[in-house]
């Protein structure tokens, strides 16, 4: 029997350096993915880094700290953390050298997005 997915992460930030990508790869090595999750958690497209994750544990605070430093250096983008166990979404949005954090119950998010 497979374990249920408790957390989903979707993110993109650019421009980032290769050092940031390596830091993220090292950091997410402690994540515990769903059994059927097949993709890499960290991927790149040019100078953009993307995070995609489904599973039961993700080092959110540590990743947010790495992303915060990248945003302070000029990156922009967002990271959405969907906590399915507590039915809550946290959004980290980086722009103008500042990483902002906000959150809302998933019901509010789904209502806003038209689902």
Number of helices: 3
Q: What is the ordering of alpha helices and beta strands?
A: EHEEEHEEEH
Task: Estimate the global geometry from the Cα principal axes.
Answer: globular
Mean pLDDT equals 92
Largest sheet, in brief, is: 7 strands, antiparallel
- β-strand percent reads 35-45%
Going by helix content, strand content and strand pairing, the class is alpha+beta
Give the uncertain stretches in residue-range form: none
Percent in helix = 25-40%
C-alpha Rg (nearest Å): 14 Å
Q: Termini distance?
A: 29 Å
Secondary structure: number of strands: 7
Give a quick rundown of the structure.
The protein is 28% helix and 42% strand. It has helices at 18-28, 60-72, 106-113; strands spanning 7-14, 32-33, 42-45, 48-57, 76-83, 88-95, 98-105. The mean pLDDT is 92.
List keywords for this structure.
115 residues; 3 helices; 7 strands; seven-stranded antiparallel beta sheet; alpha+beta; single chain; 42% strand
Give a structural overview.
The protein is α+β, with helices and mostly antiparallel strands and 115 residues long. Helix content is 28%, strand content 42%. The chain is built from 3 helices and 7 strands. The chain has helices at 18-28, 60-72, 106-113; strands at 7-14, 32-33, 42-45, 48-57, 76-83, 88-95, 98-105. Strands 1, 2, 3, 4, 5, 6 and 7 form a 7-stranded antiparallel beta sheet that branches. α1 (18-28) packs antiparallel against α2. It is globular, with a radius of gyration of 14 Å.
């Amino acid at each position: 029997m497979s374990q249920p997915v408790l957390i989903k992460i979707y993110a993109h930030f650019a421009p980032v350096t290769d050092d940031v990508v390596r830091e993220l790869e090292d950091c997410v090595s402690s994540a515990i993915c769903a059994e059927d999750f097949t993709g890499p958690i960290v991927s790149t497209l040019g100078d953009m880094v993307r995070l995609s994750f489904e599973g039961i544990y993700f080092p959110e605070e540590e990743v947010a700290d790495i992303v915060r430093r990248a945003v302070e250096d000029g990156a922009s983008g967002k990271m959405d953390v969907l906590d399915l166990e507590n039915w809550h979404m946290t959004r980290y949005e980086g722009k103008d050298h500042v990483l902002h954090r906000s959150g809302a119950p998933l019901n509010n998010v789904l209502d806003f997005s038209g689902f």
